Amino acid sequence: MKTSGNTILITGAASGIGLEIAKLFSQQNNKIIMADRSIDQLKIEASKLENAVAIAVELTDENDMNKLIQTIKLNFSDLNIAILNAGAANDYSLYSTEYNLEYAKSEIHTNYIANVRLTHALEPLLSTKTEAAFVVTTSGLAFVPNLNYPTYSATKAALHSFALASRLALKRKGSKIKFFDLMPPLTETPLAKGLDAPKITAAEVASWFIDSFEKDELEIHVGDTEKIYQLFLRSPEEAFMAVNP
Fold it and tell me: Labelling 167: which of 77, 82, 197, 221 has CA 20 to 30 A away?
């Protein structure tokens, strides 16, 4: 994939991985559409970048989603890359007093349903471009769940499966759209704030992504994700216990 001269939508762009990807693409002569629910922070960050606009959106709200889709179709019809990065995560234990169904609903809608909605809504637009791509951000937990983040892990596994299915479905449709799956390890982002474990920086993830994107590496195992993946291939049980010591 080319890394300049694109029009790129990035969700979850106010902070973390989404923001760092926006910074790198902005430096390479791309038009950036930054979307997030944290509109005040989003506007501040977008104002620092070249050729970037900020759009407020709550991905779990159907009206907001429809407005975003219509705005893109009307004002950014040259869109050729959609990086669907927004995520929600809650720390709780299954089968305990900590379990909260609302947490699970929020994660399922943000991490999975919103991405399915956006890819289907934007696919006709991207299909008209000579070079186009969807990118979803999943996780190494798509291979092995973390018991402290059970629904988050499940949504990332579902989104990874959706990426695999989408890749083949688009190919059989004769589409030129490429479907990338960015799989970072634990990263220093607002979602991981307070976790006492080794982390990679969001800037490192963004740099790794750009390099892999340019090389057309459709499944991008960043850092320790590759180690977990290889362990999972050898022994799913060992990988499960490594993630849940």
Answer: 77
Q: Reduced to 3 DSSP states, what percent helix, strand and coil does the chain have, rounded to the nearest 5?
A: 50, 15, 35
Q: What is the DSSP string of 61-77?
A: -HHHHHHHHHHHHHH-T
Regarding pTM above 0.85, the answer is: yes
Distance CA 225, CA 207 (A): 16
Nearest to 46 by CA among 38, 34, 58: 34
Beta strands in 24-117 (DSSP E): 31-36, 52-56, 81-84
Domain assignment of residue 187, yes or no: yes
Q: Choose among 132, 105, 119: nearest CA to 65.
A: 119
CA distance 121 to 65: 10
Model confidence over 30-39: pLDDT tens digits? Answer: 999 999 999 9
Tokens of 95: 């089968």
In a domain, 159, yes or no: yes
Residue 2 counted as domain residue: no
104-132 pLDDT per residue, tens: 999 999 999 999 999 999 999 999 999 99
Residue 160 sits in which domain range? 7-243
> CA 193, CA 19: separation in Å to the nearest integer?
16
